[in-house]
Design a protein that fits this description.
Elements: E1 5-15, H1 20-29, E2 33-44, E3 54-56, H2 58-70, E4 75-80, H3 86-99, E5 100-108, E6 113-114, E7 117-118, H4 124-134, E8 139-140, H5 144-151, H6 161-173, E9 178-182, E10 190-197, E11 200-207, H7 216-229, H8 234-252, H9 268-277
Parallel strand pairs: 1-2, 1-4, 4-5, 5-8, 8-9
Antiparallel strand pairs: 2-3, 6-7, 9-10, 10-11
Length: 280
């Protein structure tokens, strides 16, 4: 594996096991030189905590990108997560255009919604801006709610196989070469991913744990990105990321007080083993 430098753009929630505090260790353990561009700094994430601090870094992002360009810094890959506003989305698009090496990979997790609703503070204008960023993606990693928002599809409590195929068609039509749709279950006892890659559709299903854990989307997206840039196929990267995320949830379910995230750190050795076992 060649040594790659990736830039990930997300917020820093200092406590809470999400965003950059998840992405940085997972990408690093996958053997990637990981640079970060924080979109905001929060004392904790925003779910379940009260009175958290928030520092918006929109005004710093373009200056950081300009300094990198001055220094001749470029990236083999980009991976975006939670972005705070449409201006940040535009800045990220500009950075992708100016600081990517030839053949760079652009992976977009449109982290803006779940369970049928937008995250607090986001609106239709944000969705439209995120849609434009998704057009820049080589690989798109939406959950079902985000897929519906990006394609103007009504959200349903149950998605038929036909609806899933329509979502994949519409997401591919946005311009992304590959789509990995997460949170797709064939029954109440299962979950998994459905992916569209090079015109082919494949599914990976695993058992579902009935616990709503914060940050699992970030865990999945980071593990997928790390595995893919290690040379795994899209399908193997999605399978590894799904299995790793499931193991992180399993590791957390025996401790109700650990409600704010998943214990991914003790499972990192298992991720390394998965990377070694999966075929490229």
């Amino acid at each position: 594996m060649s040594y790659k430098r990736i830039l990930t753009v997300q917020d820093i929630s200092c406590v809470g096991q999400c965003s950059l505090t998840v992405a940085l260790p997972i990408l690093s353990v996958c053997g990637l030189e990981t640079a970060v561009l924080p979109s905001a700094v929060l004392s904790t994430h925003t779910t379940g905590f009260h009175g958290y601090t928030f520092r918006d870094l929109t005004q710093d992002m373009s200056a950081i990108g300009a300094h990198w360009k001055q220094e001749g810094i470029a990236f083999d890959a980009f991976y975006t997560g939670y972005l705070g506003n449409p201006l940040q989305i535009a800045q990220v698009t500009q950075i992708m255009h100016t600081l990517g090496k030839p053949g760079c990979v652009r992976i977009v997790d449109p982290a803006m919604a779940d369970n049928g609703t937008l995250f607090p503070g986001f609106d239709a204008a944000y969705v439209q801006a995120m849609t434009e960023l998704c057009r820049e993606a080589d690989i798109l990693l939406p959950n079902l709610t985000e897929a519906c928002l990006l394609t103007n599809t009504p959200y349903e409590s149950h998605f038929s196989p036909e609806t899933i195929q329509t979502l994949l068609d519409r997401l591919t039509a946005l311009g992304a070469g590959t789509v990995v749709l997460t949170g797709v279950g064939e029954s109440p006892q299962t979950s998994g991913v459905v992916l569209r890659d090079k015109g082919q559709t494949r599914r990976y299903t695993h058992r579902r744990i009935d616990r709503n854990c914060h940050g699992t989307g970030d865990v999945f997206a980071s593990a997928f990105t790390g595995a893919y840039l290690r040379g795994k196929s899209v399908y193997d990267a999605a399978r590894i990321a799904a299995d790793f995320t499931l193991r992180c949830i399993e590791r957390t379910t025996d401790e109700p007080s650990h409600w704010y995230g998943v214990k991914f750190e003790p499972v990192l050795p298992e991720l390394l083993a998965m990377l070694g076992e999966a075929g490229a």
